[in-house]
Amino acid sequence: MTRRLVLLCLLSAVSALPVRAQESGLLLGLHVNTDSGEPYQTFWIAPENGRVRVLLAGPDLIVPGKAGFWRTCLVDVSYEEDGGQYESDSIVAEPATPSRAHCENPARPAKESDGGYHCTSTDQTRILFVGPNAISTENSWEGDCGAHPSSATTINLTSLNQRDTIAYLGIADSVRRRTLRAASTAAAREEYADLGTVDSTSLDADGLPTGSSFSTNEQWGVKRAQGYWHAIGEASCTPIIGCMQVSTFPVPKFRAPQRLVGHDDLFPSFGSIRKVVSTARDAVSSPRRDLVVVVTNDSLLVFIPHGASLGVPVAQFPASGEIVMAQWATGRFVPIWTSKLRELIPSVRH
Asked: DSSP letter string over 254-274?
């Protein structure tokens, strides 16, 4: 048999092999753009019966944990105390069970009131990221129940189930700690360049800070950018009259640790995806590079890529928003997750 004939036989054998099956499933959480009153929703996107599509969709954030799935959401808490009215968002993180299909507001005894409050306080929380080990939130507070009206914006990064703070210096790697500190300082100086100085000892002739003075706090969080998770920082500011009491800022040059957020390697790049889907707002891809989900202004688009080529969408679902969770199952775990999640999230009719 000639070398050319052997080569042709080998090529024929390779071409006859089955194409690698799509073996990934995405548990996607969105802070959705909707007036339905359900600000956070979860979508399970996976293969079934030879097709990849959005199989399940429902309210709250269903988060995979080490010993099962957790249901996470925000609930409204409103109460009266000493003539003041207090409203806040409370985070619920509890084991997900089939018997409870939605988070419920904590019960509080009703109180009669004529509405004549002498002060009010409002604390609004937004979930920026949630994963098996942590939840990152941004909290905006304002009120007039103190000596004078005041407001603040803070960030928190806590463990999901025990709610212990994961401090700025909680990163085990000392090099990454120094990198985060340096990146936060640089980002804060850029953010507040037109408002004052950051971590500076610059003083005027009277020994007072020149303009507003910002100081970066040893507190950080995680937020989504286009195609990846990055850090956000927190800074205190004085004098209060010249700036907000506390403010937050993005640290886009510090990628969140993979051990915290999970798989975070987008392929193809977001720039390449935008060339195919001009309305893309964000995108995620599986560790096996066999599934890409793109978030547009009005839809979730599902692709099974061929190398760096997206091809055409194999599924489309009407939903949009900001990604707050992206957790992957691969191989034999995909049907296991499908079975478990069917008990927790409503099925989608196609």
From this structure: EEPPHHHH-----SS-HHHHH
